[in-house]
Amino acid sequence: MREILPGSVVSYIQYGYQKVPKKVKSRCPNCSKVSEFILKANFYQVNKTGLFAESNCSECKKPAIFVIMLNDDSGSRGEEAGLYIYDPLATNGPLDQIQGNKRIPQDLVRSFRSALNVSQSKDNSATAVMSKRVLESVLKNFNGDKTVGQSLAEQFDQLPDNVDLSKPIQALSHLVSPNTPFNEMLELERDIDDETAGLLIELLEGLIEYLYVLPEKIESLQERIEKKY
Question: Model-level pTM?
Answer without folding.
Answer: 0.59
